[in-house]
């Protein structure tokens, strides 16, 4: 006997669980299906983000940052700390506890909002009079039917050809979060978000970390001036980053991993490491979805084809998050999830791809929104730029972290903010002001005229806006 719903969401990650909650808030009888399991086999909703992505990586970054501060920076504050040690097992246990808190929080939100949760793998079976039949394969198999289906099945780590993940020596983001002890030598292929964040965690704990990147430029998607500033900081910290390499054979043995590669000059090199983290991007997760059973259209990457409203080629079927086009970011998935639920209700859901912020949670943090300077140049847009260094910010000096800057890019004629780029302390929090400003079509003058609390890191944002008109007050 099938169970009838108004809306079924397949996937309980940031896009899926948020879509389910919003649909329920709008009065729809809603079900959410998710197959993630915790160590005891119980439900662990939250997707990659909560289980092996955003949340656990931030927990490890925080622990490792405390360790580095105790070892290297406490003395500056007059604090003597000797014999500081890291209990890796306890650090991992804390990370796991943080993950569980988030898992449990989502299950509570489902109950609070009267979302029916099904623990298992959801897949299309066929189109029926009531919409679509969805099978749930789990501890208890179920058959569900709904007129509206939202697919939010996320993405998986992309494997390096010839070097499949074994999560022992060759690690995806999942294995990188579960390393049992500090490796003496750690190799990372790919200098994207995951590679830099995980490389930073284990470098702080004492690993000798080398990052191999195929592209000739560092963080090509980041504003060039900001990327150079970040690279300078990482080099100073001892994070070795080699650009323009070509990876050859990767061999795994009981001793560790050997990576053959050619450097930027084309010279043959060999890197031996205890562990290797592969972070060369992610691929849409549509395997086992049953797309062919209902004729759901996929593209050559395996992503679900959608229009600007997240509609698929099938009536009543929508898709959001990593499984569709656009940036693979948890907050982008959330925005699409809310927008789709509202569109199903006949409302006008809103997602502005031009104001989606990006953050890399290294130290210094890197955050940006809108266009980079190189993009504006390529597009022939006349612009003005203004920068302000944290070196001249009173709060940054008091924190003891003056690395980096804030950079504004504004239209040369209208002064509308076109992009804001930051590298420095806690810029993951500062970027939201820029997002709000751009969403409201603010000018750099608008931000320059707003009173910011003193002393605060946010004053660097105001000063960078002032710098667009060459009238900084503190630099």
Automatic annotation (TrEMBL):
Presence of keyword Nucleotide-binding: yes
Disulfide bridge positions per record: 49-54
Cofactor(s) this protein requires: FAD
Main localisation: cytoplasm
Positions of the FAD/NAD(P)-binding domain: 5-337
Extra remark beyond the main annotation: The active site is a redox-active disulfide bond.
Coiled coil residues, start to end: none
Binding site for FAD: 58, 122, 153-155, 322, 328-331
Name assigned to this protein: Dihydrolipoyl dehydrogenase
Chain segments annotated as transmembrane: none
A GO cellular-component term linked to this record: cytoplasm
Enzyme Commission number(s) of this protein: 1.8.1.4
Domain (Pyridine nucleotide-disulphide oxidoreductase dimerisation): residue spans on this chain: 356-465
GO-annotated biological processes: 2-oxoglutarate metabolic process
InterPro entries the record matches: Class-I_Pyr_Nuc-Dis_Oxidored, FAD/NAD-bd_sf, FAD/NAD-binding_dom, FAD/NAD-linked_Rdtase_dimer_sf, Lipoamide_DH, Pyr_nuc-diS_OxRdtase, Pyr_nucl-diS_OxRdtase_dimer
Lineage, broadest ranks: Bacteria, Pseudomonadati, Pseudomonadota, Betaproteobacteria, Burkholderiales
């Amino acid at each position: 006997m099938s169970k009838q719903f108004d809306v079924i969401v397949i996937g309980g990650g940031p896009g899926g669980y948020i879509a389910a909650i919003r649909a329920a808030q709008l009065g729809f009888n809603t079900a959410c299906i998710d197959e993630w399991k915790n160590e005891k086999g119980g439900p662990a909703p939250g997707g990659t983000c909560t289980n092996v992505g955003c949340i656990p990586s931030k927990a490890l970054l925080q622990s490792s940052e405390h360790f580095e501060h105790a070892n290297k920076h406490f003395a500056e504050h007059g604090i003597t700390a000797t014999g500081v040690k890291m209990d890796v097992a306890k650090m991992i246990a804390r990370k796991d506890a943080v993950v569980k808190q988030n898992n449990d929080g989502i299950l509570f939100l489902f109950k609070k909002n009267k979302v029916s949760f099904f623990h298992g793998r959801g897949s299309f079976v066929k189109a029926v009079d009531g919409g679509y039949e969805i099978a749930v394969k789990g501890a208890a198999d179920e058959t569900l039917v709904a007129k509206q289906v939202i697919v939010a099945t996320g993405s998986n780590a992309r494997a390096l050809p010839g070097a499949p993940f074994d999560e022992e020596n060759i690690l995806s983001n999942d294995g990188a979060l579960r390393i049992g002890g500090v490796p003496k030598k750690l190799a990372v292929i790919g200098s994207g978000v995951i590679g830099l964040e995980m490389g930073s965690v284990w470098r702080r704990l004492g690993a000798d970390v080398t990052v191999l990147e195929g592209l000739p430029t560092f963080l090509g998607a980041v504003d060039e001036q900001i990327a150079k500033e970040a690279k300078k900081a990482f080099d100073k910290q001892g994070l070795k980053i080699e650009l323009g390499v070509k990876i050859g054979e990767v061999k795994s043995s009981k001793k560790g991993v050997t990576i053959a590669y050619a450097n930027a000059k084309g010279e043959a090199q060999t890197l031996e490491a205890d562990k290797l983290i592969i972070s060369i991007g992610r691929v849409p997760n549509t395997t086992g979805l049953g797309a062919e059973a209902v004729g759901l259209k996929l593209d050559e990457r395996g992503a679900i084809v959608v229009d600007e409203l997240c509609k698929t080629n099938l009536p009543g079927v929508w898709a959001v998050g990593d499984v569709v086009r656009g940036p693979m970011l948890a907050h982008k998935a959330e925005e699409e999830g809310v927008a789709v639920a509202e569109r199903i209700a006949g409302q006008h859901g809103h997602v502005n791809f031009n104001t989606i912020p990006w953050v890399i949670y290294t130290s210094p943090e890197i955050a940006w929104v809108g266009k980079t300077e190189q993009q504006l140049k390529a597009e022939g847009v006349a612009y003005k730029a203004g920068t302000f260094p944290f070196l001249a910010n009173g709060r940054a000096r008091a924190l003891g972290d003056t690395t980096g800057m804030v950079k504004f890019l504004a239209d040369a004629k209208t002064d509308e903010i076109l992009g804001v780029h930051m590298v420095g302390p806690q810029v993951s929090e500062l970027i939201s002001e820029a997002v709000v400003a751009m969403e409201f079509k603010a000018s750099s003058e608008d931000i320059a005229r707003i009173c910011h609390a003193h002393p605060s890191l946010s004053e660097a944002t105001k000063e960078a806006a002032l710098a667009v008109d060459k009238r900084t007050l503190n630099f």
